[in-house]
Every structure is written in structure tokens, then in C-alpha cells.
Amino acid sequence: MNSFEDMGLNPKIVGALDDLGFKKPFPIQERVIPILWSGSDVIGQSHTGSGKTAAFGLPILEIIDEKNPAVQALIVVPTRELAVQVAREINSYAKNTYKRALALYGGESIYAQLDAMRERPQIIVGTPGRLLDHIDRKSLKLDEVLCVILDEADRMLDMGFIEDVEQILRATSGAHQTALFSATIPQELLKLARRYMKNPREILIESIDLNVKEIEQHFLVTDTKKRIESLIRLLHSEKVGRAIVFCRTKRDTFWLNRMLHERGISSVAINGNLSQGQRDRAMEAFVKGRSRIMVATDLASRGLDIDGVTHIINFDVPDDPYSYFHRIGRTGRAGKKGIAITMVTPPQRANFERIQKVGGNVIKNAQIQREVPQHSVATRTSD
Ligand code: AMP
User: Fold this and answer.
1) What pTM was estimated for this model as a whole?
2) How far is it, in rounded angstroms, from Cα 75 to Cα 103?
3) Any bridge partners for residue 36, and if so which?
4) Model confidence over 279-320: pLDDT tens digits?
5) Counting atoms of ligand 1 from 1, which one is nearest the CA of 50?
6) How far does residue 20's CA lie from ligand 1's centre (Å)?
7) Among 149, 160, 235, 297, whose Cα sits 20 to 30 Å from the Cα of 281?
């Protein structure tokens, strides 16, 4: 399976995924989407950052009927942050359709939520207590629900919500399928699954391929304002043969490339906005060694196979662990050693910690010891 299109998803949704930069399904999506779409129950053992929101969100969007204003999918999550995040994510997949998700959580006025319910969202994402509150008030009717998802079920168990979850499952009267996602599947969850699920397919998603033993991984805490200077120092103090510096946006690649040029460092920018000819020229300058630094977006990292990349520098922390491992996998190829350095600014800390956790805390704190030498490693060229 190569693309969301091949999976048979609605072109309107594929278009929205494309806008989000989702080019290919992650492994969990490849495995879970067809099963949920076919109507089966699923127990998915997976970690945060694996892409599970789309793994259940996309089949839900296919299953529900746009013309029916009833609630047709219920997603139960442990925290309000997750409720908001999951609803937002699903709405971004659904932006070209009339299907909508609404988050219902405690701590927000119930009246505002009752108002929002009048818009007739077909997908409800909520925390257990507030969902029960709406069920009691009859503002949430579950008789047309086709699909129930329990997300981060182990956290709901730890937080003491399991009784509430059972009550919600009992209140979901119509014929429906059920999926449970959890990082661990303790006995209590298995019991719950036995009681409320029909022949669930169990899917274990291995953590991301962490086969990056040849890569030395470091991080560098830096101020947003001082980031450029830290990068320059880094480029001077490291023995850079060839480095790819990753940025979040196309604009940032142009901007950073210009800043490097202004400081006498030869670099090229590569991103999806360039014409094929411009990309080829930039790539050639990099491959032939005229420019030792390539400033790239994530998109450019996929499928790039260039020999002798000694350093990967994340000027921005990637959004998710997959991107991180994709990026750093551009070095340390064919048994050669590589170095990956991730610059972490205060707003990017949480994202970085997620990546650090998935990777097993192997990314070490880097210290730049040397001052900027007189002669830079890279010379200015006209690229
Ligand atoms: P999740 O585990 O659902 O929170 O997803 C983790 C991160 O991966 C989120 O930032 C998603 O937007 C992103 N993501 C999920 N699926 C894909 C995909 N197929 N391609 C690119 N990014 C994705």
C-alpha cells in the first residue's frame, strides 16, 4: 500500500490529507483503517505519536453518513486536551466534507456545548464524565452510533474512569463496532474488551523502526533568537562533510539559506516550491560538494538517498517521531557513522520530549566547546 488513495479513501479526504502533508499511511494506519472500515472490532496496542488518530478517524469519516445529522461515532478519551486535539485533527481531515467532530469535556460550560450540539456534529470526542452528563441530560443520544473508540484506554483505567467508560458502553444501544487503543493492555482492559467487543482483531504496532545504531544523536537547547548563531557555531565546530539542515516550512528554508549565505556559508535550499530544474541544480551542487549544506523541508527528506551525509541538523524539532527518524535516517547509511543534532527551543520542548521518549532517551545533550574558528568549513559559492 503506497498511498491513502490506494486505500480507497474518499478523494475529498485524500485532498485534505495532502494539504496536511500526509503523503503515505503510517504502519498503524495501513493496518487499522481497512479492518475498522470493514466493520470489525479492533484492539490496537500503540503509542502516542504512532498516528492512531488518523487510524480510527479516517475509517470513521468513511463509515458515517453525511446526510444523517445523528451522532454516529463516539470517541472516548482521558483528557480534555486530547479531546480537543482529536476533534481538531478529525475536522482537519474532514474539512472538504460536511462531516464534523465536536469535543465535549469537563471544565467548559455545558451550555456552550449544548449550543454547539445544535450544529449536529456526527462525531463526538469526549471525556467520560462530561459524556455521561450529556447522556443523562439526553443532549447526547447514542442510538445511531455505528462506531465507538476508546482512545488511550490504559490512561482512562489509571485515572479511575473505567466505570464511567463501561456506563457509556452500556448506553450505546444500537448495533455498533468498538475499537480500543492503548499503549499497554492490562487484564482489566482485556476483561472490558471481552464484555463489550466481538472477536476483536488484535494489532500490535511495533514502535517505530529505531534502527539507527550508527547514528550519534544529540540535542542542543537554544533560544529562538539565538538559534541562527548556535547553528553557525555548530557548523563551524563540527567536522561537517555534508550536512542536511531541516526546517519546518518552505519559507524557512529560503530564509535560513539566505542567512547562511550572508555569513559566508555555502548552502542550497531545497523544497517543494522549486521547479524541477531548480531542485536538480541545488541537488547537484550538494552532491558534487560545491555546497556542503542543504537546507530542506521534511518533504525533501523522504526518499533522499545521498552518499556521505555526515550530519543531520534539525533546525526545528520535527512534529512527530516518524519525521524525526526519517530525517536522521538520511545519515549513517550503508554502515557509515552519522551525527544527528536537534536544536530545541523552549516552545518545541514538549514535542522534543515525545520524540526522546519514543527513541528510548538516547538523544544526548550536546555541548559546543569550540569557539568559531577563523576559517569556516564551507566556502561561499554562487548557489
Ligand atoms: P497521533 O499519534 O495520531 O497523535 O499522530 C502523531 C503525529 O503524526 C501527528 O502530528 C499527526 O498529524 C502526524 N501524522 C499522522 N499520520 C500521518 C501521516 N500518514 N503522514 C504524516 N504525518 C502523520
Assistant:
1) 0.61
2) 9
3) none
4) 889 888 998 889 999 999 887 665 566 778 899 999 999 877
5) 2
6) 9
7) 235
